[in-house]
Amino acid sequence: MKKSIKYLFGVKIPHALNEITTPRNRILRLFTYEGILITLINNLVGSHNNLYAIRLGAGDFELSLVTMLPQLVGMLVLIPGGILTDRMKNKRDMVTSALFAVACVYVLLGFVPGFGSYRLGAFLILLPLSSAPMTIYNVSWQAYFSDVVHPNGRNNILAVRSSISFLIGITITLTSGALLALAGTNTDKIHLHQIFCWAGAFLLLIQIFILRRIPSVEVERSKNLSIKGLKIAFVELIHNRKFLGFIAVALFFYLTWHIDWTLYFIGQTQYLGMNEAWLSYVGIGNAIVQFLTMGIWSKINSRHGVRFAIIFGSLGLSLCPIGMIISTSITGGNAKHIFLILNILFNTTLATTSLNIIQCLLEVIPEKNKTFNISIYTTLITLSNSLMPFVGVTVYRALGANLSALHTVFWVIFFLRVIATGVWALRWWVLRNVELS
Predict the structure, then answer these.
(1) Fewest beta carbons less than 10 Å away: which of 150, 279, 291, 426?
(2) What is the pLDDT of residue 437?
(3) Please, are residues 305 and 430 in contact by the beta-carbon 8 Å criterion?
């Protein structure tokens, strides 16, 4: 049994369970526990935002706001959050403070149904407010992680953290989806969403405790808090050709990825008729295939570098729109099953997005003003995440908001993602013999 855990598809995987229990891997173990907790939180709260909004009375337009508003608010706090993080000797303080703020807002989100006719409006206000500190957590975590972990150890820790999180996510996704599906009335479902929010707040407090156990690392504080200092930091960054090259490729990739986030949900629920249980099956299928393939991609990273495998991740995402087109073209009860099979198949490379893009970023980010630099990058990605789902829905509605319109938009997305894959491949080819980090 131990051998079967350690080897998958004949590949020795670094996220084998004995990696976690080895005493020398204390940092790996703590970051893995922390990753498990944020996965539980995102699955309990974040992944059910659209469903929660629908139960509160949201339509297609409000669903696009559920995606857009949190991203816009998060974008506004990225630069200030990055500057403040760089001013700290220990970036962990910003990470834990942001998580505590998210916990407070999640408690309030649980009380939203009590606002009566204003409950949807309250939800659309509080959800972006929770996004602000969560965004700061994400950007400060990346900077803190790079302070604590040497570049040679990042691939292993991220592989362990991601793969175990995927595995744990399967359980919570199945459980939460099944509970929502079993709830008899809309009121019962809303009560469950409330419980999920409050449970998420409690888990955030545990996550803070785990982070506090990771060895403290103090670095030189940035002094570029003045306008002049920020101007110098920005000028230095825009002359960093490594950074600009990466950000151009990554931004185009994210633009093509984000555009169908709300459309995918519309396709699943309105055209394929998926309920909470079926949506959880899709999430579980994605999590299982990412867990099973994480070791393969980690090994490919070790042999060929992190810039190579992301090509396949982009290619897999390119095929996802085709899966939606095929499955929604099928009449009868098998459409959901076909979609589930195709979606799992095309997501066999998705693990490279969480495993490789952050490592590609850390390759080109200079140590000076690190969090500020990451904030600039994340601001652009967040802008894409806030606008592109709204653009996708707007185009879909302009074309008639019917099945034909859905197929047309997904064909366009397919061709754009093929181009993005080609750009990733071109970057790898140009830099194949270049050491960036």
Answers:
(1) 150
(2) 54
(3) no
Q: Are 101 and 73 in contact (CB under 8 A)?
A: no
CA distances from residue 253 to 175, 195, 234, 414 in whole angstroms, order as listed = 32, 36, 23, 12
Contacts 24+ apart (CB under 8 A), 51-57: 51/180, 51/189, 51/193, 51/276, 51/279, 52/123, 52/190, 52/193, 53/120, 53/123, 53/124, 55/186, 55/189, 55/190, 55/193, 56/112, 56/113, 56/119, 56/120, 56/123, 56/190, 57/119, 57/120
Closest CA to 110 of 120, 97, 123: 123
User: Residue 203 has which token pair?
Assistant: 């888990």
Mean pLDDT value of segment 390-398: 92
- The encoded tokens of residue 197 equal 């929010």
287 neighbors 168 (Cβ within 8 angstroms): no
Rounded to whole angstroms, the Cα distance separating 423 from 250 reads 9
Query: 220-236 burial, b if ≥16 CB within 10 A, otherwise e?
Result: eebebeeeeebeebbee
Give me 402's structure tokens.
């019917």
Which value, to the nearest 10 degrees, does the dihedral of the CA atoms of residues 358, 363, 365, 366 take? 150
pLDDT at 420: 96
Report d(CA 435, CA 13) in Å as an integer. 25
Q: What tokens does 146 get?
A: 């790079």
More confident residue, 199 or 163: 199
Give CA–CA dist 100/124, Å, rounded.
20
Ranges of H-type helices in 87-185: 92-109, 119-148, 151-182
Tracing tokens 């005493």 back to the chain, one arrives at 23
* Distance of alpha carbon 408 from alpha carbon 411, whole angstroms: 5
pLDDT of residue 83: 78
Q: Which of 276, 279, 125, 113 lies closest to 191, judged by CA?
A: 113
